[in-house]
Design a protein that fits this description.
Blueprint lengths: L2 H11 L5 E4 L4 H10 L6 H12 L2 H6 L1 E6 L1 H4 L9 H7 L3 E5 L4 E3 L7 E3 L5 H10 L4 E8 L8 H20 L3 E8 L10 H22 L7 E2 L16 H15 L7 E3 L6 H12 L8 E5 L1 H11 L6 H20 L4 H6 L1
Parallel strand pairs: 1-2, 1-10, 2-3, 3-6, 6-7, 7-8, 9-10
Antiparallel strand pairs: 4-5
The structure holds 1,3-dihydroxyacetonephosphate (13P).
1,3-dihydroxyacetonephosphate binds next to helix 12.
Length: about 350
């Protein structure tokens, strides 16, 4: 493992004003997204949709540092035969790959999930590195309900994240460590304060396992959730409150040696995800740059505008570029709602 190289990639991914496009929807998830716009999910429709995103040259050149791909997309070509890898090179975007095999029910009846995909991962990572992947992603899902999260589930997920992360570093790939506390717990259990407490606990355990596994913190990135009330909660904290509480929890549990933090959007509206990020970046004295690694919050409007048709590429690309631009401003802490709506 060359730590200097890993650190260089990690820092490039959090270049000021740039963030990550998560385009690694699994076959089930992309089908769900396409169903909503009545488009059949085929290899060709997935290729077309992602080609639309990757050929948004202004967004890709100015606002996006890295793209998370699925295995299918990593090796795919645009309709005219240009490898996607070439498009990334031309816009100086680092390709990355989702390497987990999904979150499956945890044994027992706590309603929790454990992420699978460690078997054979060392060999797969070698192949992804040879195909040009600079980073990888593994998502752990932490549930909040009456009995969850359990200690057992937090430990099992943290341990898997650490096993994945050290294998990535051995292969010369930057691990993006994603422990996501998901927001769909029922309202009685999922207040903002409970999310803060669970997020802190999960991060504490994750970094403990990362250290035990020998993961070099300067050669990784963290992809956390923000501290938010559950989606069914009646709490309505301001953007500033979410920002303040999230930064507080991260400061307490994330070592300063981590080169950067790139948040997931986790079902927030486009504007919420942007506003929260911008508010966090207005808080001074943080030890790490904070940016976005959004899937839905970057793609929602572009997906609907595309609607399965290549002739809609220009309008869909304009929508994606606008969202990427707004999140770029948020990564710098200079976004405003007026600016967003004026466009
Ligand atoms: P969302 O921003 O849509 O939550 O997706 C990001 C991601 O990569 C989740 O693993």
């Amino acid at each position: 493992m060359n730590l200097a190289d890993l650190n260089k990639i990690a820092l490039a991914m959090v270049t000021p004003g740039k963030g990550i496009l998560a385009a690694d929807e699994s076959s089930g998830t992309i089908k769900k997204r396409f169903d909503a716009i009545k488009v059949e999910s085929t290899e060709q429709s997935r290729r077309d949709y992602r080609e639309m995103l990757f050929r948004s040259s202004e967004a890709m050149t100015s606002y996006i540092s890295g793209v998370i791909l699925t295995e299918e997309t990593l090796e795919q070509k645009a309709a005219d035969g240009t490898p996607f890898a070439q498009l990334f090179q031309e816009s100086d975007v680092i390709p990355g790959i989702k390497v987990d095999r999904g979150a499956f029910p945890m044994p027992g009846d706590s309603g929790e999930k454990i992420t699978e995909g460690l078997d054979g991962l060392r060999q797969r990572l070698e192949r992804y590195a040879s195909l040009g992947a600079g980073f990888a992603k593994w998502r752990a899902v932490i549930t909040i309900n009456d009995v969850a999260p359990t200690r057992n589930n937090i430990r099992a997920n943290a341990h898997a994240l650490a096993r994945y992360a050290i294998l990535c570093q051995e292969a010369g790939i930057v691990p993006v460590v994603e422990p996501e506390v998901v927001g769909d717990g029922d309202p009685g259990n999922h207040s903002m304060e409970r999310c803060a407490q669970v997020t802190g606990d999960v991060l504490e355990n994750t970094f403990k396992e990362l250290r035990l596994a020998g993961v070099e913190l300067s050669g990784m990135l963290l992809k956390p959730n923000m501290v938010l009330p559950g989606v069914n909660s009646r709490e309505r904290p301001s953007f500033e409150e979410v920002a303040r509480r999230t930064v507080e929890v991260l400061r307490e549990h994330v070592p300063a040696a981590v080169p950067g933090i790139a948040f997931l959007s986790g079902g927030q509206t486009d504007e919420e995800a942007t506003a929260h990020l911008s508010a966090m970046n207005q808080i001074s004295g943080k030890p790490w740059p904070m940016t976005f690694s959004y899937g839905r919050a970057l793609q929602n409007v572009a997906l609907r505008t595309w609607a399965g048709r290549r002739e809609n590429f220009p309008q869909a690309q304009a929508a994606f570029t606008h969202r990427a631009h707004m999140n770029s401003l948020a990564a710098l802490g200079t976004w405003t709602g007026e600016l967003d709506r004026a466009a």
